Amino acid sequence: MATVTKEQARKFYETMATIRAFEESVKRDFLAGEIPGFVHLYIGEEAIGTGICAALRDDDMIESTHRGHGHCIAKGADVNAMMAEIFGKKEGLCHGKGGSMHIADFKIGMLGANGVVGGGYNLATGAALASKMVLKNDRVSVVFFGDGASNRGTFHEAANVAAAWKLPVIFVNEMNCWASTTPYRTTTAVENISDRAKGYNMPGVVVNGQNVFEVYDAAVEAVARARRGEGPTFIEAKTYRIEGHFVGDPEKYRKKEETMQIFHDTDPLTHFLGILPEGISFEQAELDQIRADAVEKIKKAKEYAVSCEYPDPSEYITDVYVD
Question: 50, 106 in Cβ contact below 8 A?
Answer without folding.
Answer: no
